[in-house]
Inverse folding.
């Protein structure tokens, strides 16, 4: 696939243009904490940047985040950089001048930017207004984009072909910051030229090289553009070794599940003047019984494959950020459904048991995501109780993957930040402590009812969805009801439950005192299947079928829950 895509409809000529600033590129930094995310601009002529702003659009939500770039002063025929960390720019690219730092440079591959002058005019734009870049031709997750030579400022009339793009995830693990190659060897910062080429060219504009389409796709339109042609040229296309002459864009290719298509276009005028090539594929569908089997297959075969989860998945939480939904199965294995495209039109509620979910897998910041490609889920039942499993902070921190996307509960914990006046903010980590160990509670980005509430100063029980961020454990509280005052002192470490798993028909429950223990046993859907008052330390579970259950143990007005496996 060619490195450059060309916009040919907007070009009038390639003469140097004056007194103009353009967005030339961006790098989605792979460095720790994403330090080094940077926008590059080029100044052609002389410009006084007093009153100018670089404005970011986050997740298609409109251009609302103004970044004042007046500090650039007056520049002439040079590059300038707006970065969240100037030191990383210097280290990775050897650039030490014309840099402004801003913590608002947080684009993670789907955001847009525009340049606004001192009179509030849109001078140039990257990205479509009101569109989240995920899944678009201009997505740039963990990679870069860079302006095609000779493309002038677009005044807001953005087209994806005005830029070239690195392959998605190209920069993962790269950079001196990761003890790998400097980003300057992969990202073409500082190379833009106001003068373009006059050579006749052809380049694919869709699909992006390496695209994988969902199973069931029966045809794909490939599209290309040409530049500097005279009108006498024709185009030939070759699909998996078979050539078709005199074709036009778009060209439809019939497709089959599980197949890869290698496609070349040639611009011909007696001889081949120029060519471009891409490859795309159509995925095949793997069926798995439940989320546990899904995770096992991902462990064996990696991410990026397409699945149908035929069994029931219980919805435990949903929020407004990219239509996220958390499900877990009867084995209490969980998965995050990440639906930024809004593919699922069906309305699900917490407690719904859903069968037939279809999606593909990806891993983001250490968390497995299930991205739907079809609104295929069927609600098998609703109103099912959702029971969290009690875990200790020590266990959670040690193995966050074991609790990822599962509903869990910490008992008798405190928020060190609570001083009686501090309140919860959006998208923020707050320490949660049991007195010995500490983990993080991550707050919601949007509408959780605890945002703005005073952080508790007393001991609480905290329920939430287990997660992590690049290996650091985090729990996501769903609502204020998940943060409840605790008057008990019954810790998860105050009892022993064994054998677990059990195949003997009995389990032994030992606690720190001799009072009877009330035991309620629930199946994974929250249905109570057994209740017993245990005074002799033994609970008879011989009537229960093999499977996973939640035990709620209450002693002296204190309660705890625990997972039990019966073989």
């Amino acid at each position: 696939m060619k490195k450059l895509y060309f916009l040919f409809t907007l070009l009038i000529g390639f003469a140097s243009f004056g007194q103009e600033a353009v967005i030339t590129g961006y790098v989605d930094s792979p460095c720790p904490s994403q330090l080094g995310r940077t926008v590059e601009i080029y100044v052609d002529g002389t410009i006084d940047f007093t009153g100018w702003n670089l404005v970011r659009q986050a997740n298609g939500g409109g251009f609302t985040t103004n970044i004042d770039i007046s500090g650039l002063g007056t520049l002439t025929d040079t590059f300038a950089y707006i970065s969240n960390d100037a030191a990383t720019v210097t280290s990775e690219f050897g650039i030490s001048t014309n840099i402004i730092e801003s913590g608002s440079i947080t684009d993670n591959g789907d955001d847009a930017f525009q340049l606004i002058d001192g009179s509030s005019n849109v001078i140039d734009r990257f990205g479509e207004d009101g569109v989240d870049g995920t899944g678009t031709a201009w997505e740039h997750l963990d990679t870069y984009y860079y302006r095609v030579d000779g493309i002038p400022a677009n005044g807001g009339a953005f087209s994806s072909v005005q830029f070239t793009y690195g392959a998605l995830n190209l920069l993962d693990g790269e950079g001196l910051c990761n003890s790998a190659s400097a980003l300057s060897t992969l990202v073409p910062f500082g190379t833009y030229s106001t003068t373009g080429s006059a050579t006749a060219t052809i380049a694919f504009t869709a699909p992006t090289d390496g695209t994988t389409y969902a199973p069931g796709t029966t045809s794909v339109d490939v599209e290309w553009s040409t530049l500097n042609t005279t009108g006498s040229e024709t185009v030939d296309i070759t699909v998996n070794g078979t050539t078709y002459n005199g074709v036009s864009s778009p060209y439809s290719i019939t497709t089959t599940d599980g197949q890869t298509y290698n496609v070349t276009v040639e611009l011909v005028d007696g001889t081949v003047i120029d060519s471009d090539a891409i490859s795309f594929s159509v995925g095949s569908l793997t069926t798995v019984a439940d989320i546990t089997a899904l995770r096992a297959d991902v462990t064996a075969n990696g991410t990026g494959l397409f699945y149908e989860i035929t069994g029931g998945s219980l919805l435990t939480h949903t929020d407004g950020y990219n239509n996220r939904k958390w499900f877990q199965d009867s084995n209490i294995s969980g998965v995050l459904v990440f639906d930024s495209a809004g593919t699922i039109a069906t309305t699900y509620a917490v407690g719904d048991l859903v069968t037939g979910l279809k999606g593909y897998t990806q891993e983001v910041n250490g968390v497995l995501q299930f991205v739907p490609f079809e609104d295929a889920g069927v609600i098998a039942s609703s109103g099912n109780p959702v029971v969290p499993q009690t875990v200790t902070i020590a266990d959670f921190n040690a193995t966050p993957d074991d609790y990822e996307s599962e509903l869990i509960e910490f008992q008798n914990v405190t928020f060190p930040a609570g001083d009686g006046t501090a309140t919860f903010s959006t998208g923020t980590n707050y320490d949660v402590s049991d007195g010995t160990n500490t983990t993080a509670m991550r707050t919601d980005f949007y509408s959780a009812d605890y945002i703005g509430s005073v952080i508790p100063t007393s001991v609480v029980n905290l329920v939430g969805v287990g997660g992590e961020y690049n290996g650091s454990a985090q729990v996501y509280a769903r609502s204020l009801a998940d943060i409840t005052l605790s008057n008990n002192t019954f810790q998860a470490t105050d009892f022993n439950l064994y054998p677990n798993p059990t195949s003997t028909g009995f389990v032994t429950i030992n606690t720190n005192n001799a009072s009877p223990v009330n035991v309620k046993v629930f199946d994974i859907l929250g249905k109570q299947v057994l209740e017993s008052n245990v005074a002799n330390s033994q609970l008879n579970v011989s009537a229960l079928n093999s499977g996973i259950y939640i035990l709620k143990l209450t002693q002296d007005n204190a309660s705890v829950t625990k997972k039990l496996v019966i073989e």
Remarks:
- Helices lie at 86-93, 291-301, 393-398.
- The mean pLDDT is 89.
